[in-house]
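It would be a great kindness if you could assist me with a short task in structural biology. Thank you for your consideration; the sequence and its tokens are set out here.
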Amino acid sequence: MTARAERGATTRELILTTAERLFAERGVYAVSNRQISEAAGQGNTAAVGYHFGGRTDLVRAIVRGHSREIDRIRERMIAQVRGSRRIRDWVACLVRPTAEHLDALGTPSWFARFSAQVMTDPVLRAVMAEESLGSPSLVHAVEGLRPCLPDLPPEVRAERNDMARQLMVHVPAERERALADGAPTARAGWHDAATGLIDAITGLWLAPVTEGP
């Protein structure tokens, strides 16, 4: 790699980490490309556009950078529970990879809060779905979970699927925010936090269904 290419790669990575932090702290559309460039120490305020084009491509690059490691962790976990008929095993494959990745990032980290911000935007949510929610390892985990679930009415299954997704996105984001602020957390570490989340989602799927009048 030439010196120029190395400088370009370094600048690109600096923009990615800066954008992720600012998006997590302020919101995706509350931060301009100019602010990202300035916070990244770039004299050229058009650096974001030069390296990434539009906002969607920048968000995609951030998600893609984290998804590779999360997928690697999930593939390892799936290999360990392959063939299991326990709901909890497959819920763990959905929850623990992100928690393990966030733990490895150290404190402060921003990816959980960034993800929560992106998932509330109808356009950027599709980018997140394409880059991370559609990954082969995640699809495999969902396929492993599906036959383990109780026989629920279709509307209840859809409702609980949405609830589980909300928990997986926003619970880690709230913990990450608390850690960054130095605030107390319910669990000491990410592993224990993931255990609590797995317990909650497993209970959600197994909860009784109240019959209508």
The CA atoms of residues 55 and 203 lie 38 Å apart. Residues 154-181 form the longest helix (28 residues). The two ends are 70 Å apart (CA to CA). The chain has a mean pLDDT of 92.
